[in-house]
Amino acid sequence: MSDFHTLLSDLVLVESPRWHDDRLVFADWGAGEVIAVDLDGRHEVISRIDAIPFCLDRLPDGRLLVVAGDRLLVREPDATLSTYADLGAVSTKPWNDIVTDGRGNTYLNNIGFDFPEGEFAPGLIALVGPDGSARQVAEGLSFPNGMAITPDNSTLIVAESYGGVLTAYDIAPDGDLSEPRLWAELDGAAPDGICIDAEGAVWFAEVPGCRCVRVREGGEVLQTVSSELGCFACTLGGPDGTTLFVTAAAWPDAMTPGSRTGQILTTEVSAPAAGWPA
User: Fold this and answer.
1) Distance CA 65, CA 59 (A)
2) What average pLDDT does the segment 79-105 reach?
């Protein structure tokens, strides 16, 4: 039995949830859509993306960023998408998650090989500055996945799905990453999307385990919330910042043409999102 409530169903392969302006915005990779849904389940498609995978975040001014193929796109006020940065010179392998800090520095990770058929190779993290320039700032990650930044813009945490760890980096004033260190070892779990709460703990979603897990630095498990579906990513939001939103789908059924097992799940937790209220 699931510990979650279902907010929205009949989706395909859903990822990259972000809370913004009283709605959850997320990516449906299978449908090629960016969708916004409110707490009553009213939803709309706000952009269409011809790429897979594609993930999203926002600039400090609220504009939506979408990493799609070898480009980072920005959604303009007229709802059109334009190129914010060209990522092709940094890597030709698939790009994955994205997170932006309060200064407008945008971090994107690249898994480093052609998943799932290709031979494994380490992944990297790139930085796109406010001027649209892109450069590599970290390497050697074992399938980098979800990322989050502390509210003071000092630390980036990234999930390494193949490594079963959360890794942290110091963020320099110019956006460079340094001092990579083990933030938490996850006892064989395969972390996917992550978020940070106001107590400094991290929630990570896990597809094989069909769950979301809250851990503190060092790896102590504080809470586990289970589902009948694979959990791909999570974020905190809602009116008090204490609603955990999860993108979920049956795995590997979600990759089967015509499958629509994707759902947006919710549950209430004790600690609000980091930096709440924004």
Assistant:
1) 7
2) 96
Residue 25 has pLDDT above 60, yes or no: yes
With 80 as the cut, is the pLDDT of residue 256 above it? no
pLDDT at 1 over 60: no
CB 30 within 8 A of CB 13: yes
- Residue 278: pLDDT band by 50, 70, 90 thresholds? low
Q: Which residues contact 114 (CB under 8 A, 6 or more apart)?
A: 93, 94
Instruction: Tell me if 14 sits within 8 A of 264, measured CB to CB.
Output: yes
Residue partners of 250: CB distance under 8 A and separation at least 6: 229, 230, 259, 261
User: Model pTM?
Assistant: 0.96
Domains present along the chain, CATH in parentheses: 5-268 (2.120.10.30)
Look-up of token digits 């190129």:
83
- Write a three-state SS string for the chain: CCCCEEEEEEECCEEEEEEECCEEEEEECCCCEEEEECCCCCEEEEEECCCCCEEEEECCCCCEEEEECCEEEEECCCCCEEEEEECCCCCCCCEEEEEECCCCCEEEEECCCCCCCCCCCCEEEEEECCCCCEEEEEEEECCEEEEEECCCCCEEEEEECCCCEEEEEEECCCCCEEEEEEEEECCCCCEEEEEEECCCCEEEEECCCCEEEEECCCCCEEEEEECCCEEEEEEEECCCCCEEEEEEECCCHHHCCCCCCEEEEEEECCCCECCCCC
Q: Which amino acid is it at 203?
A: W
Average confidence (pLDDT) over 133-145: 98
Q: Residue written as tokens 């193949």?
A: 162
pLDDT number for residue 116: 82
> Mean pLDDT across the stretch 169-178?
96
